[in-house]
Amino acid sequence: MEGAPTAQTAQSGQWRETINLDELWEGDMTSVTVEGETVLLMNVGGQVRAYANTCPHQAGPLDEGDFDGETLICSRHLWEFDADTGCGINPDNARLTVFGCKVGDDGTIWVDTGR
Ligand code: FES
Question: What CATH topology corresponds to 9-112?
């Protein structure tokens, strides 16, 4: 879609160790604290995604929402997001804050919040 806003990934090159992939099964989500920031970790079809845990609408905690393995629904006012991309489904111009995320050979999930 030309002209559509895209999710931006905040990265500083400062990777922080979080939990192990063993603790985040496919279709699960959890929150962790990284450098004072609450980060939402999601396992989307075997790929880990990291987002700010704050809803772009009115800052509701996204870890209290519903996640069916593909779509995240904020518990506050039911905004919907594509968990794979962080892009809004309803409304479609909303965007989650995306953090850098990678999984080490030992399953450790590393996050870069841009700080
Ligand atoms: S705070 Fe998330 S939908 Fe309103």
Answer: Rieske Iron-sulfur Protein (2.102.10)
Instruction: Show Cβ contacts of residue 2 under 8 Å, excluding neighbours closer than 6 positions.
Output: none
Task: Provide the whole-model pTM.
Answer: 0.91
Index of the ligand 1 atom closest to the CA of residue 55: 2
Does residue 76 line the site of ligand 1, with CB under 6 A? yes
Which two structure tokens, joined as six digits, stand for 104?
A: 């080490």
CA–centroid distance, 59 to ligand 1, in Å, is 6
Question: Which string of b and e fits 16-28 if b means at least 16 CB within 10 Å?
Answer: bebeebeebeeee
Ligand 1: which of 40, 51, 74, 97 to mutate, most ligand atoms within 8 Å of CB? Answer: 74
Rg (CA), the chain: 13
Spell out the per-residue pLDDT of the chain, length 115, in tens. Answer: 444 445 667 677 899 999 999 999 999 999 999 989 999 999 999 999 999 999 999 999 999 999 999 999 999 999 999 999 999 999 999 999 999 999 999 999 999 998 8
